[in-house]
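Before the break, one more example. Copy the sequence into your notebook; we will annotate it together after we see the structure.
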Amino acid sequence: MSDVPAAHARVSLRAVRHNTGLLRRAAGRAEVMAVVKADGYGHGAVPVARAALAAGATWLGTATVAEALRLRAAGIGAPVLSWLNGPGADWAGAIARDVDLSAGDPALLAEISRAAAGHGATARVHLKADTGLGRGGCPLAEWPALVDAALKGEADGTLRIAGLWSHLGSADDPRDRRCLTQLDLFRDAVRFAERAGVRGAVRHLANSAATLALPDACFDLVRPGIALYGLWPADPLTDADLRPAMSLRARIAQVERVPAGQGVSYGHTYRTARRTRLAVVPLGYADGVPRAAGNRVPVWVSGVRHRIAGRVCMDQFVLDLGDTPAGPGDEVVLFGPGLDGEPTLAEWVRPLDTIANEVVVRIGERVTRVYTGQV
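Here is what the structure looks like once it is written out:
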């Protein structure tokens, strides 16, 4: 791949299709909503959406209306839910392009209803219940008022209640007792809505981990995000054959010989133990390589692992090559699936005390995405 940019993220759409198929089987009778917010977790929303749909996903999920409209602009016509929008959002644009919208309070619901009425249209809404996360959605004490307002919108033709949903608080471990409590509360909220007259709404609660480890949470639709990309936020909960889709790569820009005791990068937090060769790699924290990765995480070059030497800079970091036979133009793999011995993202997140989600979504625009496995 000599025509590939020096710094790039290689994204396997074959892996995305594989992971989608695995999630689809785990979901049983439920449909799969492929969550492609944050530009597909840094992988590229449009290519990932197309790959997931080709592998059996039937819905797409975004945080904002703008993200949903970018999918529509790319010619993607599958159902899309946008769930994180506040007052003044582009409701009209969403309604005109058949984007489903989430509402967790009557005021927001009324705003969506007015936008629909102003355009002689009907907005499809998903009513969100806060079952314990404490991060958006309707408190259960106020749930009857939200359901009543939505049913009035259905009666006047401005709203269609398309979904009932919530989100798990202990998202990394759906078998946590708090998630089981939320599961019961969500069932109660759904029962209330249905008794009040809601008909035909898709029920959805399960994220990636719940799709794979808590079948009772799958209902009519599941919303996998990070698993779509072959990753767990932290430690795996199951032995599911998820395949990481992204590998982050760059080519060495320069190699210099230095003596023992040479300080490396800002603050000289690393010093060479002997006469050696230092390699400059043109990726830094402006590209999504965490500044905290210095002296902590491994990378792979010429079949050998090396820990980043010294502090990560805005545009570059340094490796102490020692005796490794590598020079300018040779490829460095920061992380990947691990099939060739390169570090995996899991090996990065532990020493950085973070989650895989945070690393991949921060891979910046300067890093070209190169797609493989296209159909």
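The chain has two domains: 13-229, 246-372. DSSP finds eleven helices and 20 strands in the chain. Try to locate both features in your own notes.
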